[in-house]
Amino acid sequence: MKRIIVSLCLISMAFCAVAQSKIKQEHKDRAAEIVKQMTLDEKIDYIGGHESWYIREIPRLGLPAVRMADGPQGVRNNTKSTLYPSGIAAAATWDRALINQMGTSLGKDARARGIHILLGPGANIYRSPLCGRNFEYFGEDPYLAGEIAANYIKGVQSQNVLACIKHFAGNNQEWGRHTVSSDVDVRTLHEIYFPAFEKAVKEGDVATIMTSYNLLNSVHASESKYLNYDVLRDMWGFDGIIMSDWTSVYSPLNTGYYGVDLEMPFAKSMTPEVMKQLVEQGVLDVRAIDRKCQHIIQTILAYEFDKTEQLDKSLPENNPYCDSIAHELSRAAIVMLKNQDNFLPMKKGDFVVCGPNADKIVTGGGSGFVTPLISSSVALGMSEVDKKVKSLYLKPEDKDYEKKMKNADCVVVCLGHNSETEKENADRTFELPEGQVEYLKDVLKLNKNVVVVLNAGGNVEMASWIGDVKAVLMAWYPGQQGGLAISEIITGKINPSGKLPISMEKKIEDNPVADSYYENVKRIRKINPYSRVEYKEGIFMGYRGYEKNNTQPLFPFGYGLSYTTFEYSDIAVAEDGDEFIVSFNVKNTGKVAGAEVAQVYVGDQECYLVRPAKELKGFEKVYLKPGEQKAVSVRLDQEAFRFFDPMEHKWIVEPGVFNVYVGSSSADIRLNTQLTVK
Ligand code: GLC
After folding, report:
1. Whole-angstrom Cα distance, residue 375 to residue 83?
2. CA nearest 485: which of 89, 139, 73, 120?
3. Could you tell me if the CB of 231 is within 6 A of ligand 1?
4. Residues linked to residue 616 through DSSP beta bridges, in sequence order
5. What are the beta bridge partners of residue 181?
6. Residues with catalytic annotation?
7. CA 245 – ligand 1 centroid, Å
8. d(CA 390, CA 384)
9. How far is residue 436's CA from residue 412's CA, in Å, rounded to a whole number?
10. For 42-95, how does the pLDDT look when each residue is reduced to its tens digit (9 = 90+)?
């Protein structure tokens, strides 16, 4: 390709199609009028949570109480509710429309309980499999996480329930979460750790944001001027409510000026006594409190919480529509990692189901935990999925255990983590919980036809056993209908279509962050009362890092097997103003219907900063009958080419030639071409 010689004119552009904010000038004006009528005591009271889950009411001013509840995968707080697949499972569907339905469904569950704010989605980037809360989040790639977050939020808010994207920002580890500073350079923040939040604001019009416990570059997120004003308010134009995570406000004065609008679950730091004294002494300008009240009130007015009853009595708490969405999601989220000699699907025969996770619904622990209304474990699912399938749930102590194991046509072994070993406020092991690999080896001594079903919020150690089993399904935490969905995939009623939203390393040392996940005491003199984690891999984390380090993961980002095969052809690029449309065909060349996630990656051939070889900038999930071919188009806007210049502190699109890759995973590129940004 002739090199296009262009003057190196750097263009800094506004990016992200900006959604219309629901908060209009009229709401801001009315809110300002109300703030003027508030007494100082009322203002100070108003910025502290009430009874742990409320924004307090002020009846004389027509301000209603506003109720909030966890969490990202189902409504929690003293209620049973629909348990959806966890965040990372939702991301593994790569299906925007389905995620929008998930949000809508969550919104209905919230309205059925009179809840105004749902404390989800969680969107922190998966930096290492060790983080205890990866299960709640959307994986390692900022573009995918942003698409999932924005569609989730639009769904929730379509039901007039406020979504709350969390935890802003740099909460990528759970160890020492109140006292760890995530030290991240500004380019890496904007290119990796911010985009899901930016897209939530600009495209999802998210109404509320929750700051994180951790420090970011030595400043607690809840009091960070950079996060809460420079980025959220000034760069992204966020007009909604910023709330703290629970008891994560550490300085009343700094938070007063630069921090959250609302201290949850109550005013532990910005107490009335302290704040009143600061104001009366002239240390804290009352206008700093006014603007917190302004953000809260304008949001409440925009969603008309002052005019409408949030409890929708027409909606059942146990909603069949919501159960069906949870089921669809789990079907689409499960990733088939291995299927040796097309061992699956097995449409009939004698099955044994066993293992520590076989007869229960597993999910991660902490505030994201939900008690489901319906429970479909793998043991139950396999017993119901089809009358041609005979399935036994066996434990080692059962009668004739060994004989029954040996006689089975297939043994489904359910392993993985659970709410005790993978949870908030702690990190987990890379290895499976103690004894599980040994258990699997014992099963293999009795029967070689083993299918492993894995529950976890991310990668686990597999290299020591995966070669011995016929098939592996990554089920994440698949929600209340997970057992049935897994059974439908094993018996071929459903063709798996999930794709990995993470890279899966062979060993933890292969991860680009392996030696910077914990505190770098040797690099940083420890004189502070807190720990420091230096994200010294910069933007080269996940597949960006594996490719740069030339380290082969066990399974690459975007990978997932199907019971059918797909062929890609006829790539073309068309210009549309300053955007490009990449088009190509995908054909189902197998014998069963299936869905393929066609992924579009972009790589800058030349730049004055180092850039990843390729970055995900588009995808489409295509459902195809056997033999069917569809034309697919993916639009690349300026955001697909931008990088953040740390010295200019702004986004740049540098003209030049870009490689375009279309593939079935980040490591299975089927088509490629180039385009020139002028
Ligand atoms: C927790 C979590 C947050 C949750 C909140 C309320 O500590 O970090 O995600 O929404 O407190 O339970």
Report:
1. 9
2. 89
3. no
4. 601
5. 215, 532
6. 245
7. 6
8. 9
9. 14
10. 999 999 999 999 999 999 999 999 999 999 999 998 899 999 999 999 999 999
